[in-house]
Specification:
alpha+beta
């Protein structure tokens, strides 16, 4: 079982606070999965091609919420720390 540390920027907190309760609940569910599981499905996490950034895609009410983040390793499986940068 992993225990990744997630850091939040003020830009991310502004995005998160703008979400309705249903969306927050789904985001929190995905966060818990990412924190505790070494391998995470590409359904939730994907590397952005030719960058050091990743996106987390969360489907809520037939809409996607996308959260941009960075990690402390070249490989997500080995990452111990995540910085949540922003969302839209």
């Amino acid at each position: 079982m992993m225990n990744r540390i997630m850091y939040r920027t003020t830009a991310f907190d502004s995005f998160y606070n703008s979400l309705n309760n249903r969306a927050k609940k789904k985001v929190d569910y995905v966060f818990e999965h990412i924190r505790t599981e070494k391998n995470v499905s590409t359904k939730f996490v994907k590397n952005l091609t030719n960058t050091d950034f990743y996106e987390m895609r969360i489907s809520v009410d037939n809409e996607y919420r996308v959260i941009l983040f960075a990690i402390d390793d070249d490989n997500f499986i080995n990452a111990n720390e995540i910085v949540l940068l922003n969302g839209f």
